[in-house]
Amino acid sequence: MEDLKLHGSIFSPFTCRVIWALKLKGLNFECIEEDMTNKSDLLLKYNPVYKKIPVLVHGGKPIVESSIILEYIEETWPQNPLLPVDPYEKAVARFWSKFADDKSLTLYGFFVKVGEEQEKAVQEGLEILRNLEEHGLGDKKFFGGETIGLADVGLGWIAFWLDVLEEIVGIKLLEESKFPRLFEWTNNFKEISIIKENLPDRDEMMAIMKSRH
Amino acid sequence: MEDLKLHGSIFSPFTCRVIWALKLKGLNFECIEEDMTNKSDLLLKYNPVYKKIPVLVHGGKPIVESSIILEYIEETWPQNPLLPVDPYEKAVARFWSKFADDKSLTLYGFFVKVGEEQEKAVQEGLEILRNLEEHGLGDKKFFGGETIGLADVGLGWIAFWLDVLEEIVGIKLLEESKFPRLFEWTNNFKEISIIKENLPDRDEMMAIMKSRH
């Protein structure tokens, strides 16, 4: 077994991305649950700049920032590739993975804001989903084509977390009638056995997010 | 000559990164100056999601987002590598390049804010520089070691733009006494002939930034 440890939390979408990628590569690793209200000395040592999860520790060396960890995983373990070989297609996959990163806080807005600010956040959220539907997914099954890839893993939280947030707030953003292809993608994504087996428990997730709300 | 066009502006630090990378690779390309107050139809077609510069068009195919363009350049033209071969060292370089991206707006804060908000922005700016000095640069000449690499190209705007902003506002963040290694790095960076030959004119830059201020 590789000397591979992941500091994170199953309830963090950024940690889940890394879990999914490691599992898709068929790797065994130790998962160390971090309490973000009482950060461990090891986490502070491994990620002195951001002090955040996830951190992947491979042979004692820490790699931080989920998008950078995904690239590291792809390069270190080339089996079951997450990125296409062609540099242009690779750039497109990276674009949507980065889009997922850059827009996550905005898409979260409708969950934390109220009144007029929430209305604005809903519009911004819909615009993000529209971009994913029209420019990202097109007619493909997954963002990278016929099989799951880096962009799907990066965007995967939309398939699971968004639905929980929507239920708590009572606002539906990702409606099947408005975004049929993206809606179908969330089902295709969650049907992959490795994803299905590595999602947080929905009831626990609901309880945690309700208390945050 | 490659069919290579760059839509951007020499006064945009995100465009300059791409220019530097292309020049460091020894590539010839056509630079198409975009007027961001009157965006061209071509720019809107190439980057429908963000409608922003820079856009690199290679053989008619557009690549957007400067950090993704840099990866594309590195993969398509491997000569004069910007990234190390080792996946771990590569992850470290990518971390600082991403740090440059993620922190650019925060570091810009002292230039656009006033009063207490500016004071806060100054403290945040100093924290960014401290992280670069202590955790990023260490005792190395460049962020990647002895030669210029991806992180240096990503962070390069600090070596040129920051000084212009500081002069306009009358606040010095990057003081030699506080950040001796980072200060030296800015000089090492600007002394590289390809960088020196591909910087915007300082007086023009000053005039543009003064009008924005």
UniProtKB/TrEMBL annotation, chains A, B:
Gene Ontology CC terms, in alphabetical order: cytosol
Domain of life: Eukaryota
Family annotation (Pfam families): GST_C_2 (PF13410), GST_N (PF02798)
Domain GST C-terminal as annotated: residue spans: 86-213
Enzyme class: transferase
Record's keyword terms, sorted: Cytoplasm, Transferase
InterPro entries per record: Glutathione-S-Trfase_C-like, Glutathione-S-Trfase_C_sf, Glutathione_S-Trfase, Glutathione_S-Trfase_N, GST_C_Tau, Omega/Tau-like, Thioredoxin-like_sf
Catalytic activity, reaction form: RX + glutathione = an S-substituted glutathione + a halide anion + H(+)
Keyword Cytoplasm on entry: yes
SUPFAM superfamilies, sorted: GST C-terminal domain-like, Thioredoxin-like
Positions of the GST N-terminal domain: 2-81
UniProt name for this protein: Glutathione S-transferase
Lineage: Eukaryota, Viridiplantae, Streptophyta, Embryophyta, Tracheophyta
